Amino acid sequence: MILKGKKVVIMGVRNKWSIAWGAAKSAYEQGAEVICTCSEDSIEKVQELVKEIPGTSVYVCGDVSKDENIDKCLEEIKKNHGKIDGLLHAIAHANTEDLRNDFILTSREGYAHAQDVSSYSLIAIVRMAREKEMLNEGASIVAYTYYGSEKAIVGYNVMGVAKAALEASIRYLSKDLGVDGYRINGISAGPIKTLSAKGIKDFSSILDVVEERAPLHRNVTIKEVGDSTAFLFSNMSSAITGEIIHVDNGFSVVGV
Ligand SMILES: NC(=O)c1ccc[n+]([C@@H]2O[C@H](COP(=O)([O-])OP(=O)(O)OC[C@H]3O[C@@H](n4cnc5c(N)ncnc54)[C@H](O)[C@@H]3O)[C@@H](O)[C@H]2O)c1
């Protein structure tokens, strides 16, 4: 029970396949009070889902490319739950055409959209949480990223660039947050079949390659990513900040 007595906010639960859902379940199993946020269109599904982890609250957080939506959602959470010990950012989006076409065809609008939703939103969320003084002493923030930030992966395109910015933001945020004793880290999760992943061209062949080449010869599960998230929320990781941890069965360390 490494999260006993802690309160964590899990942003980005959409359905039972969401990686954020794995994080919510792991945090619950480790003794945390869990607060989930989701988009308006998935509220009914998520409300049904959280019945599996009693005591969990759900809030709608509208489009995170609008500051007022983040503000409203965090304000509501603060009002009802007070200070929190952990926050997960599991939010990303790119326009379908930018994941289907060659990267060179990425539009200015598509580039800005992917960056805004998938990367800048982390900065805005963390800043507002700090301004609202809703982070408890030693609070830990986690964001999900992917190997497509480090290597050119067919079909990941503009999202790879957004994740590279997200990872750099984590390093810069660690300096600002460290002043107050808060931590922030990224988890670079191996590929997992989720609704978002369906938008990526030939996603199933990416899963096959991982199975073939990763040292552990299998794909990761949302439980494994969730358990690592719980570790990063916990005091067991108190000296880790600004880091990107690969939870990918070792795929990223293999050359030829
Ligand atoms: N699935 C993978 O293979 C994989 C691998 C590594 C990292 N990730 C990352 O994990 C995170 C969660 O993705 P997932 O794969 O579980 O998919 P998912 O579709 O279950 O979750 C994506 C979430 O992003 C939210 N979202 C999208 N646009 C939004 C916006 N404008 N405003 C507010 N919320 C918005 C959706 O509502 C959803 O809850 C993402 O950051 C994703 O990039 C996924």
Please, could you describe this protein's structure?
This protein is an alpha/beta fold. The protein contains 8 helices and 7 strands. It has a 7-stranded parallel β-sheet with strand order 3-2-1-4-5-6-7, with helices on both faces. Strand 5 (135-145), helix 6 and strand 6 (183-189) form a beta-alpha-beta unit. The radius of gyration is 17 Å and the shape is globular. It starts with 6 loop residues before the first strand and ends in a 9-residue tail after the last strand. The model has no long low-confidence stretch (mean pLDDT 97). The chain binds nicotinamide-adenine-dinucleotide (NAD). Nicotinamide-adenine-dinucleotide binds at residues 12-14, 18-20, 38-39, 63-65, 90-93, 117, 144-146, 189, 191-192, 194-197.
Strand content: 15-25%
Q: What profile does the largest beta sheet have? A: 7 strands, parallel
CATH level 4 superfamily: NAD(P)-binding Rossmann-like Domain
Order of helices and strands: EHEHEHEHHEHEHHE
DSSP E strands, number:
7
Number of domains: 1
Summing up helix and strand content along with how strands pair, one would put the structural category as alpha/beta
What order do the strands of the largest sheet run in, or round the barrel if closed? 3-2-1-4-5-6-7
Summarize this structure briefly.
With 256 residues, this protein is of the alpha/beta class. The chain has a single domain (7-245), classed as Rossmann fold (3-Layer(aba) Sandwich). The chain is 42% helix and 17% strand.
What is this structure's SSE topology?
Layout: E1 7-11, H1 19-29, E2 33-38, H2 43-49, E3 57-60, H3 67-81, E4 84-89, H4 96-100, H5 108-131, E5 135-145, H6 157-178, E6 183-189, H7 203-213, H8 222-233, E7 244-247
Parallel strand pairs: 1-2, 1-4, 2-3, 4-5, 5-6, 6-7
The structure holds nicotinamide-adenine-dinucleotide.
